Amino acid sequence: MIPRTRNIVVVFVVVILVVAGIGAYFLLKKSSTSTCGPSERNYICVDQAEIPDSLDPAVTFSTPGWAAVQQVYQGLVNYNGSSVTNFSGVLAQNWTTFENPATNFTSYTFTLRANVAFSNGDPYNAYVQWFSLYRSLLLAQGPQFILSQNFYSTNFQPGNPLTYYSNITNVTAANTTLVNDLNTWDFASPTTSEAAMMGSPNQSFQVLSPDMMRLNLGYGYLASNYTYLLASISAPNSYAVDPTWVEANGGVQNNTVNDYMQSHTMGTGPFVLNGYNGIGGGGYTLTPNPKYWGAAAASAEPWNVNVQVANTSVEVVFQDAIDITTNDLTSGAVQEASFAYVGPSTIQQLEGHSNVQVQPLPTIYGATSGSWWIFLNQTHAPFNNLSVREAISHAINYQQIITNAFGGYASQWVGPVPPSYPYNNNVTAKLAYEQYDLKLAYQEMADSPCANGACRSIVNNYMFLNTGTDWAEATQFLQQDLAAINITIDPIGLSLAELYEEQGKDTNGNCVSNSSANGGPFYIGQEFYTSDYISPDDWTQNDALSTGSANNCMAGYANTTVDTDTYAAASDANASDLTGYYTNMTTLMYNNYSEIWLVVPTSFAVYSSNLHGFVQNPMASAEPFAIGFNTQWLS
Prior knowledge:
five-stranded mixed β-sheet, single chain, D-Maltodextrin-Binding Protein, domain 2, Dipeptide-binding Protein, domain 1, alpha+beta, Dipeptide-binding Protein, domain 3
């Protein structure tokens, strides 16, 4: 998954971000129509480095996209405050689980809140949620995998339901019918026949009554139970959209985005989004939703930050010039900022100002935003030799990079699960694998085809993220370290957008990283992942799985045991089993040395001292580490 993500992905207040999100880069200037300034108290003002990829919750797959839609749209559940393991109801009042004898997998039954409506007054109910979830699957956009792990389209046939592994002809026919249904049914008041079809058992999403919804696991590609289901449906592609509004503005098409919804919104959330201008210097405004349904729920559940009523408008300006953003923060022109990447040099500029708060955050915040490694493509010389790959892993002075390039604001890790995540093996693995050992590196090179400097003349293009002095310095140290073992790299700095491009394939199915695009080919380079939601399998399905987006075209690591363990772990709730799976994956991958685990940069909270009420959460994917603006206010 792409980070947004992800994360990937996820009260915003914090300004920081160690890379998370996909988005194009522009040289931005403050909007001339901005209401923001040092004396402004009616708006929370935000400089944001990246522009949303989409405002459609079923489509957006980037940090700035998730940041926007999470203010306007809502799902059944979301993270409970700053927790990443506990969840509170949003559109759902409560939920229960049971082992469904019809499927032999777990089913989740959600009781929905009463009197919920969209900002235009249209009602929300279980039929609307059914529409929204199946629409998200039908659009088949980037974040679809989050749902399709466990769910799939429907043919309304209880005796022969569709699954991810159904015959493609049957799937195509069923999808054609489903698209027509989504575009023609009245989901506010369906007919008896329509309600019966939505209530049909043996389908992924089942309506039990207008205020009760059941999600049945087992139909997706995991074909199993899933430990992190609540985390996965906290992602925007499970959020509710208004069927009447969608149908009036382009409707639903299979495998196709709705152009109108790319830049317009209509949700149940505490804000209304206005004035969207998706270009450099543009932005959008969030104003409190005057028809917001959540006042009673907020009063009854004051601890539930997800349902609180918004009290302050927010202006977001697309501004990626770090010097301008830094000045805006220190001058008080903005209260928050979202950097594409912020390193020690920027932090040092911001520290010491009386009107700016700067604080390093726990490791999990940095791990969620981006944990980094060096990939070695094992199908290309000299990296197709195990001894060469192992020599590289032992030649890198990790602590020097952390101390000198990152000012100490980073930590070493051993993947594929990052530190602070469930079932990571970082402490054990780092004890077992003492990585920096130049003597051992020399020995490994002597046992390789590169012995006696035979590979010194091979110049290997090395791609790295060029967004600050820290990564450039880290690359310089790496260049020196590898030169000591006669491996020559030519560092080529890429933007985040270009780095993402390198992960993909061209129209002919060939890996972009093997081409001359962006200065390639790149058979060695910097790679990272950022979470869609906090679960260990969200990482292993991308950086360990042979088909993973952060692995397939980069290291090209492929191990059938790791593939098997990845899927087995995703569906196993037994702690002992999970420890075994992830420990085994760590050992197998480390001993292959095609992914050289590097550092997790520290994330920081940076915000105005007059900003209050933010709730930090590492899955925010917003400004970044907060899920909504609704609880924030200015003094």
